[in-house]
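We treat protein structure as text, and this decision shapes the records that our systems exchange. Below, we set out a record of this kind in full and without editing:

***
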Amino acid sequence: TIMPGSDESVSRATIRAVGGLLPTIVGEQVDVSGLANRDVRALANWTYGLSELRDSQFAAAFDHFRTALEQDSLLVQAGVDGAVAAMWLSRIAEAQQMADAAIRHDSLLAPRHRHYAHGIRHYTYGRADSTVRRMQAALHADTTYTEAWFALGEAFLSLMPSLELADEVAQDIGSPATHTAIAGAALETSLAHDPSYSPSLARLADVSLLHGDTAAAAPRMARMLSTLLPITFPSATSSSRREMATKAVASSGSDVPSA
């Protein structure tokens, strides 16, 4: 029998609360079965970080992911997400450290997340083809994986995979076989699955501006601003998500870490 107030009942209550909260933050249903027995404080910090990562608040997100991993080294996804945030900040060594820490326990991850974690690690070390191969595997496991579509596009923008692999990916996703075209198609696909995913909006606007295509850049920048304005003036999105995260942990009967 599980007694009220026991560690196990607290854990279950927290997992239920986090499971109800994550779809609001990440825009899709999330399997939280792998989060059982994870540290409650780490779960709260990871949840904060997810909200901030999606809102392009990369420094704050990284701090929460790093804290989460320090509190529970088996919360592997915090290491993966921390590596992503660090790459956005051009903090390469820290990104590599977070990714290395994550894959030490990759057996705890579902297949799509395991491939994604290894892909992010390859990305932090500049391994273009290995990054793409892992993101392909993640997407074969789940074709709606927004973050993996984004990472695939980012790899073709920043790492320059081989031409042979570009031909293969282009055929696979129905894109012209240029790095920029593949990147654009992957980023657009990520937005098809999650129209408010601000990193994809930002990168697509960057691509348009780099090519002098202001006509294409304008609506993309408008979409990005419409997503980010509630974050810049946090009376809405970001603060409400944090409030939900705080309530989620509070409902479990555990202390809530300071933001």
User: Anything to note?
Assistant: The chain is about 70% helix and 0% strand. The chain has a mean pLDDT of 79. Residues 231 and 238 are 6 Å apart (CA to CA). The two ends are 35 Å apart (CA to CA).
